[in-house]
Structures are given as structure tokens and as C-alpha cells.
Amino acid sequence: MLNKICLIFFVGLLASVSFGAPAAGSKADLVNAMSAMTSHKVTKGNFKQIKTIKKLNREFVSTGTFAITNGEGILWNVEKPFASKLTISGDKMIQESANGKKTEMAAKDNAVFAEFSRTIQSVFSGKVDELESHFEVSFKKSGKSYVVDLVPREAAVRTVIASMVLEASAELDKVSLIDGEGNTTVYEFANHSH
Amino acid sequence: MNSLTTAIKQKPFCIAIWVALHAILFVLGVLSPWNVETDLYSVLPDSSEFKNVSEAEKALSARSMRNISVLLGHENFDVAKNAAETIEQTFSKDAGFEETRLHVDANSMKEMRGFLFEKRYVLQSPSVREALKNGDLSSLQDAAAQKIYGAFSMADLGNLEWDPLLLGEQNFDYFTLESPLMSGKFSLRDGVLAAADSNVTYVMWSAVISNSTSAMANDGHVLGRLYETLDSLRMVEPGLKIAKSGVPFHSYESSRNAQSEIAWISGISIVLILILLLTVYRSTLPILCTVGSIGIAAAAALATTWLLFGSIHIFTFVFGTSVIGVSIDYAIHFFTDWKKGSSGFEVRRHILKGLLLGFMTTELSYIALTFADFPLLKQMSVFSIAGLASSFATILLLFPCLPQNKKAGVLPTIIPQKFISLYLGAPRKWVANVVKVALLLALVPGLYLLNVQTDMRTMYSMSDELKTSEVLSAKLNNLGISANYFIVEGASPEEVLRTEEDLVKRLDVAKQDSLIKNFLATSSLIPSQKIQNETIENLRNIVLSPKDSNSTNESLHQYLEGVGITNDSAFVNSLKVTPEYLTVESKVPQSFKSLLNMLWIGEVNGKYYSAVLPLHVSKDFDISKLADGNPKVYAVNKMGNINDTLTNLSRVALMLVAIAYVIVFVILVLVYKFRTAVRIIRAPVIACLFLASVFGYAGITFNFFAIVGIILTLGIGIDYALFFNEGGRKNLTTALAVMLSATTTVISFGSLSFSSFTPVATFGLATLLGILCCFTLSPLSARSVKKEDN
Questions:
Q1: B374-386 as b/e: b if 16+ CB within 10 A
Q2: Which of B60, B81, B100, B104 to mutate to test the interface with A (most CBs of A within 10 A)?
Q3: Which of B243, B332, B492, B710 has the fewest other C-beta atoms within 10 Å?
Q4: Model pTM score
Q5: What CA–CA distance (Å, rounded) separates B761 from B750?
Q6: Which of B432, B410, B434, B437 lies closest to B422, judged by CA?
Q7: Band of the pLDDT at B119, cuts 50, 70, 90?
Q8: How distant is the Cα of B20 from the closest Cα of chain A, in angstroms?
Q9: ipTM for the complex?
Q10: A139 pairs with which residues across the strands?
Q11: How many A×B Cβ pairs under 8 Å?
């Protein structure tokens, strides 16, 4: 029998990208808002990713396009400053670097990836119950806009991701991640099309 | 000569000789270490290469065989978790467990990340090492850029100036996300490891049984208490599902069942034998003496084995039951005669020839077995030789000193009389011959169908509950550890790691060929110093400027600028420092430590060993092929090796006993002439063919334990024929003694055939069939009635 304690690391990693948690009284609003946001079969657009590293006092900015096919998968195409692609589907994740080298990971072979894939897709396909299983969720609404705060349930995960904030109106506008060291990664979405 | 003959007829002389013989043996035995071997490897011959790794394998098994896990499942996760919490609270401080685990340390991921960053110059994945070796800087830069700018990358960029190629993060990915340990379904939930199956969420609680805890079930055993706690939890939450996994559960349940079964079987056997002997002798003295002689014989056998071998194997005990079987027969023959009122010395004179021949034939069989090149067989034989010799000495030297039976009584000979009458009213000779030939021919198809093979896997059947638990546990863990694995040997840890690295290259090819899915090896976590050195040297070559070792080369410069690093001094300086190389003694994170505990065996008898475990092995994977050509790599197919050895052992044992029987036959020819010798020897020989044929007809595999039954039949069964030959077919005392001997043997061994433990049942059934057949045929070994009448 193997010691399974080591799983923790990987699960923690997943949590660094996963979302989830109980809604504090306004779950119906949250479900409606998430459903509206993810009601389209395909959502495409541009994104800007800004990573701020406190220790270096620096920002790393990248831009590109994304495509979300409801229920099927997500394509993240980073164009600048270094090209790369990330494709996440229900059963696998493929990373492709600028020189075309592909790294593939199958969900059936890796519990962390399977969990990661389920969670990230739950955000973009509006699966609130799946989110709640991983995060403490709080929901604020202001007019047509709303903000969802997500705090990982797992202490081990919180050492990597302290919290996440989703900001949306009719579309998902912004996702902010704060890691255990206080560094932030912000995704800004624009030019949505369906 | 006459003075010796006179002396052995004197009580003090006999007693003195007997006491001296046993006292010497017992003193020497007591002074020897009292070791009991249970290691299956010790059944292998000395010449086997696996003997070299026997101790290493034992050390490996001793660790892995103490691990257990319990999955507590419920449709409601909180219920499952609460149950696991209860188990943890109840047993976390229990001395029966060395360690218990439920909650996951929140800081362990941080610790792992820090360790992999710190060791990035000496510890890298094979693909990064390959890139470094090939000078492929661009692929390393691409991978790092992807981590810095790619989507959903959670790489820690805080150390970018010290590690611009993010080698620490590459390590983290390799040793976490790409780890073979990640193939399971468990993930972190609410601080514990949980996995879902069929709408039930299971929480894992695991533990290591402490060294001092016995594998056998006993009162207050920690697993007994765990079972009770689990039962009470199930009573509170009827929907709670429990799956137990680990060798200790199997040992505990088997020994618990065996103990109650043995208590029943031996209890009933003893009562039946005592009733039988009391009915016949109507006195407690013969019974006390018989039991005493058996006890002394067993002690003498143990003392001799310890003295000569330093330890006794558990299998020897099974084989050693022949000592009990034959000892009781000798005693029965003595007391049946003694009961008639003869003095002890007269009785000895009556039975001496039959007893002596019986003793010699049995001992000859065992002596023949000592010539086998199997230490275990030698040990079994020595055990039996010593036990029988002690028993024979007791009958010959001690029993004659018993007081004469003043109340000479009539022996109950009605049943023997009826039994004998069956043989006296024999049909015409030609009819008898036709029947004999027909019966012998009937044995042939059974012998043709006989499957001589020992497969230990068929010897153990686990309970349905434990089987379901193991299947579920294997499904959720999905690690795919095979029963076949490698043990790597070396004169130093470095040599072991280097040998492992050669083996790993072969395993990588097997992985590409889809023969295995993955593998676990120490050198994947702790590379040899040679590899560690190559890693940092190749990195220095690839990134430092050939002209100025205080700066990075031109190609890297552009990348560094691209990621905004204008000053490379932190990176360059970190490369110039001599790294702290990893060794198996290094302080490593808990997850590494757990794996190393499983894989690194360490020093055993001056050499170093490790285990390499192939995972998810396909049926075409030939483990021995991978070890070919490397004498320091042992392909361990433990079950296969044991099975082959036991099968071979059985064949050798049979062959040697056959040779011994030829010698016995020659002796019998010299003593009785040819025809009588054939008559005597045919009963046990036909009995063995009969029992083998029955096994063939019934489709029961004729395994090592059945062959032990054969040897016992040959050893014990010939005595019946000898006694009938000596006493004559019409001698009711002889018939009664043989009948009593056979009945006690049938009760003892026959009852074993009801055991649920397959080896015991097979052994019991074989002996039962053999002895019954021997007994049935033995009156035919007597001199013809005409000659008897004459």
C-alpha cells in the first residue's frame, strides 16, 4: 500500500486553478447569472493576462485569444510575447509550445488533471454545484454586473491560491487570482463573440 | 555380545541409555537459538541466485506488509469523513500502530516546491536531462516562457532571477502532476483524501502496524479492536461502506479462522482418539505413555533441527506430523500386546522384528530425502529422522520398563475379527486375480489425468468481503503494482543507483512499447551522483558563456531580456556554487520519504539493495528478459519462483523416496524372500497410486502438500503390511493393533481434509486416501492362511 499523502501536492495544484464553494443566501442569483453568462454554445474573444510578482516588483503581461465551447472544451491561444496553446477537454489537456512541441495529459491517468479539468470547465460552463464543492462562494450583485468571490476550501490549496474573484456582466469580464504569497494574476476578457 | 543382550534386558540400563540420549539432545537443542523461519525464499536451494536477495526481499516485505488502509464510504461525504475522524481519534495513539494518517498537511505542497527548487541543478526529469545533454536550450526556454506567459500556469515566478529557466517549476510538474502516483482517483477534500465510486464518496484512513504487533490474531489484537470500532460505526450509520485493504487484514482473518478451525478439528480428533484408546485399553496408562512418547519425539525432533540448522521452517512442522502418526502406531502396537498381560520385555520381543523393519523402512525414506539439494527437504527429513528415532528408543528402552499389566484383559476383537473374515473367505484365485487387474487398470485413467503442479495462489481464498474491498481499493488507487518486480544489488548506494539507471533505460523502452505503463525507482527521486554531476555540468555548459564563465551566453541573453531579466548575476552565481548532492540519506519531503521507504531497502549483510516496481504490467511483459545480462538485477517473480521450486521439490522428493523404496525392497527380499517382499511393499505402493488416481479423477491439482501425503503414506503404510506379515492374517491382536493405528491416523489426518485452508485440506485428503487404501490392502500382505495354519 502506498502512502497517498503525496497526492496532496497535486491536489493542491489543481486547487490553484479550481473554484468552488457554498453560496451565502443568493445561490439562485448566482445560478442565474452563471447560466446567462455561459448560455452560448461557443464564446470567443480576446484576453489579457497580467501577472504581478511582488517579490520582483514586476508584471508579466501576455495577450491572445480564447474559445469556449460549452460542454466540450476550452482553447487558450497565447500570442504575445511568447506563443503557446492550451486545450482543455473533458478527457485530456494538451499544451503546445511555440516550436510545436505538444505535451498531452489524459484525465483517466491523473486525478489532479481530471479534477482541474472538471473545475475549470465548471467555471466556464456555469456549474455552480461543482464550484461549491471546491470553494467558499460569496456573490455580490450590482445592477447588471456581479462579482463572485471564491476562497478554496482546502487549506493546502489556499497556500497556492488564497482567493479568486470573477467579475461579469452579460459576459465574464475579469478573473483575478491571488496566490499564497500575495501575487496576483488577472485575466481580462474582451471582444466576446458567439 | 551376550553381556550386551543381557544388559538391554535390564531396566536401569535401558532407562539410563534413554535418559542420556535425550538429555544430550535436549541440552544441545536448548543451547541453540530457537528460530522459526516463515520466509518462503528459504525453500529455495542454496545455489539459487535468489538466495542472494532473500534477506533484501524479506526486509522489503517486512515494511510493505505492515501497511493497511481503510476506506470509509457514504453517499454523504460528511458522514464518511466523520467515521474516518472517529477511527483516527480512537487509534492515533494506539501502541498497536506505528503511524496513522487521515489529515493532509496543508504546508506539504509548499515544502515540496521549495525542495524541488533547491535541488533543481542536481535533480531533473529525464526529458530536461536529455535537453541539457543535447544542448537544447531553446526547448527549455520555450517551456519556461510557457510557464511565465501561458494560460492557467500557476508556476511560482518569485525565484525567476535565480531560476530563469524555471527548472524548479519543471521539477515540480514532473514530480507532482506527471507522477505515477497520480493515476489514482483520490483527491483532497476538506483536508482528507477522498474518491468517489458509484455515488459513494470514500475517505481514506491508513496506518502502519507497529513492529511489535503479531500478525496472528489474538485477544486484544489491534485489528480486532479496529474491527469492533468499524462494526459499531456501521451500526450507527447503516449506510456506511467499509473497505479494508492490506496484508495484515489477510493474516489476521486467516489466522483467526485457522485458530478456531484448528481448535475444532484437533479438539474433535483428540476426543475421538482418546475415546477409542480408552475403549480398547480401559486404562489411562497406555494413553499417558503414548501422548508422552509423542511429545518427547516432537521435542527431540525440534532440538535436533535447531541444533543442526539453527532454525526450523514452518513447512517442516507440516511434514513433521508424520512423527506423530508413526509414534502413535509404535505405541499402539506395544500396548495392544502389553494389554494381554505380557511383561514389557516380552512385548518388545514379540513386536521387535516388525517394529524394527518398520522403523528402518521409514527412516530409509527420510534418509534418502536428505540427499536432495533442497535445504528445506533436508530439514524436514532430519526432523522426522530424529523424531522417529526418539519414539523408537522410547518404545524399545522405556516402555519395556513399565510394570507388567496385572489386570490382563480381553481385548475387543469383534471388529477386527469381522474385518479379517472378509479376507479369509476369498474367492477363487482366478476371480481374485481378474478383480485385482481390473481395479489396477481403473487407476490408469486417473493417473493419466493427474496434474502435478504447485500454485500457491490457489492455496488461499480470501473472504468475499475482503476480496470486494481489495478490488475497490485497487480501482481507486489505480497504481497497478505488479507481483513481479526487480531487486537491484550493489556494493554501495551509488552502484545500486547506477545499476537502477541502466535498468530504467530498459523500462523506458518497455513503456514506449506499452508493455508497462510506468514504474517506480529510487533513482528517479535520488539520481546517482554521476547523473547529478552531469546535470549541473551540462547546465553550466549550456548557459554559461564559453568566453566568460561569469555571464550567460548570447543565446540565453536574448531570452533573459525577453522575460525582463537585465542582470543575470544571481543566476550565474547560483550555478557556480557547488551543489549539495542528493543521497538516500538526504532530508527530503514527506512524499519522497514515503516512496523511498517503499523502494530503498538499504544495507543487508554488507550489500545495498533497492526495489524497482513496474506498474500496470501487460501480459506480454517478460520481467526476466529485462534483467538478462545484468547480474546485479534480480527479476523477482516471487510466487512463480516458489511455485516452480515446490513443484520441483515434490518431484525430487518422490524420486528419492522411490529410490529408498527400492533399497527397502532389497532389504525385504533379503529378510523375507522375493514373493513376500513384493506382498509387503505392494500395499503402500498401490495406495499411493490409488490416492494419485483419485486426485486425477477428481481434477484436484496434485501439489506439494499432496505429495507430502504420499510420503507419509509410504512411511506409515508399510508398517501395516509388515505387522500383518509378522503377526499373520488370523492374529487378532495384530489386526486390532493395525486397525487402531489406521483409525487414529485416519481420524487425525482425515479431519484435516475438512479444513478450509487448502494446503491443510489437500494434505489431509491425500493422507486419508493413502492410509485407508494401505489399511484395506495390508491383510493381503500376510502369509497365506495355509502357511499360517501349518
A1: bbbbbbbbbbbbb
A2: B104
A3: B492
A4: 0.72
A5: 9
A6: B432
A7: very high
A8: 53
A9: 0.81
A10: A148
A11: 207
